[in-house]
Amino acid sequence: MTPDETLSALAARAKSKQRHDQKSGEDADAMRELVIAGLKQGIGPTELVRASGWSPTYVRRIAREAGIPAAAKGVQP
After folding, report:
1. What confidence tier does 75 reach under pLDDT thresholds 50, 70, 90?
2. Which portions of the sequence form the region Disordered (predicted)?
3. Residue 28: how many CA atoms within 13 Å on its side-chain side?
4. How far apart are CA 56 and CA 49, in angstroms?
5. Tens digit of pLDDT for each residue in 25-62?
6. Domain residue spans in the chain?
7. H helices present in 1-77, as ranges
8. Is the dihedral of CA 18, 44, 62, 32 positive or negative?
9. Phi and psi of 68, rounded to 5°?
10. Which of 6, 13, 3, 4 is nearest to 53 (CA)?
11. Distance of alpha carbon 44 from alpha carbon 70, whole angstroms
């Protein structure tokens, strides 16, 4: 999956999650996996926040739980 496809899939899942008003479940699990995949592909957290509708704090938490280290302070990818 390309980074653009990952962002598109994440945005589609976020819309589906909003429509069904689910706080957990299949859409949220799929979104978490897409966020992790996006981070591994080099997509910036800000783009993933925009696509998912989740807070920056939650996206960082997902990253840390997946073993993805924080970027060095002041370093832009």
Report:
1. low
2. 1-28
3. 11
4. 6
5. 777 888 999 999 999 999 999 999 999 999 999 999 99
6. 3-65
7. 3-20, 26-40, 45-52, 56-65
8. positive
9. -90, 120
10. 13
11. 11
